[in-house]
Every structure is written in C-alpha cells, then in structure tokens.
Amino acid sequence: MFGGTFNPIHLGHLRGVEEVRGAFGLEEVVFIPAAIPPHKAAGEVVEARHRLEMVKLAIRANPYFSISSVELDRPGKSYSIDTLRYFQERNQNASLFFILGGDAFVEIETWKDFQGLFSFSNFIVMELPGFGSPPLRAQLPEAFVTAFRYDQAVKAWVHASGRTLHFQEIGFLDISSTRVRELIERGRSVKYLIPNEVEAYVKQHGLYRKKR
C-alpha cells in the first residue's frame, strides 16, 4: 500500500516504489490517493478526481501497480489507520506492507492513533542516500521506542505486535510535487519530472496554473 496526495504524482514516486517492490518481492503495490489530507490546506490540493486520473495514467504500464479509491469513497478526512484497517480486514491471509517516504515518517507521531498503526501492517520507509543526520533508522520516534526491538536477523525493527518496520534506501531523484507545481505555475517545462501522460492531462485540464 502506498498512500499519498499525489498532487501531482511524479517519477520520484514511481521509481521509489518500484525499487521497494523489487527489494521486498511484493506481488502488488496499491496506490491510494488521499481525499482530504489532514496535514494540508484544502486550497493546496486539486480535486480528487483529477489526482485519481493522473495516478491511473502514471501506473497503467506497470502490471505490478494498481489503484484504490477507498479514501476517495470514504467521507471526511483521510486517515491512514482507517485505510490500514480496511485492507487488513480484506486481506487477512496476505503479508501487508505500508510504504511511505522519510518525510512522512518523521511526522508519524502527528498521525491519528499513530501507536495503533503497526497492529494492521508492516511498514517500509523509503530513505534517500546521504540524507538525514542521524539517518532515519536511528530516529525512531520516542513514543515507539519501548514498543520495538531491533532484529539483526531480519534487519528490521520488530513491533510488539510482530509487525516489522524496514528502512529501504532508494535511488535519489530530486523531484517533489511542490517543485512540479511551481514550474507549471510559472509556465516552465516539467518534462522528465512527471510521466508524459500526466503532463498531457495537466495541460488539458489547466491544472496548477495560477488563476487570473
């Protein structure tokens, strides 16, 4: 499971998750666009229908990637613990992994019911090489410390529930949705930052252009 605002989805998202999929032998990666992200102002995010369509366009050529509209179909704000519960209840015989970026992980203590997250899924945190001092794997949130132990055999933190927390280094692509939006607003090229299909969709619908 890979959740996010995807405002818009870019090649950094796709490449990072593809590396994680290969490293962990995941059979499927489900992209989950957020409806109303709790940590973002409503005006910062384009309509959910556009973000959903852009993700569909971005992943359609990868047979291991799929998409879920569960957070868009659920009323109210999008909380990860509700989404994890949803997938755990429907996939009780599967090994579930929740993928997130390092920037999201360092804020996990602000998430709703964050201490219960590991009751539903294993976690994989994507780390960028050379970033973080100390590295993310050494920055386990203080509220988690007593609930985890490090297992050298599996090279992961093991939660009291038995779920695991992994830190996976991925290749560095200096791309962010914020940067993409800024370039589009200024009328600059975003080629090689987002998939061609997504770029065409953005132009077709006039997304991220400053209203005059």
**Sheet with the most strands?**
5 strands, mixed
Mean pLDDT: 89
Strand content: 15-25%
Low-confidence stretches: none
Q: For this structure, what is the CATH homologous superfamily? A: HUPs
Summing up helix and strand content along with how strands pair, one would put the structural category as alpha/beta
Query: What is the share of helical residues?
Result: 25-40%
> What is the straight-line distance between the termini?
38 Å
Fold blueprint:
Elements lengths: L1 E3 L6 H14 L4 E5 L14 H12 L5 E3 L2 H4 L6 H11 L6 E5 H4 L16 E6 L20 E4 L4 E4 L4 E6 L7 H9 L10 H10 L7
Parallel strand pairs: 1-2, 2-3, 4-5, 5-8
Antiparallel strand pairs: 6-7, 7-8
Task: Describe the protein.
30% of the residues lie in helices and 17% in strands. The protein has 212 residues and is α/β, with parallel strands linked by helices. The chain has one domain: HUPs (Rossmann fold, 3-Layer(aba) Sandwich), CATH 3.40.50.620. Strands 4-5-8-7-6 form a 5-stranded mixed beta sheet. A 3-stranded parallel beta sheet has the order 1-2-3. The chain is globular. The N and C termini lie far apart (38 Å). The relative contact order is 0.18. The model has no long low-confidence stretch (mean pLDDT 89).
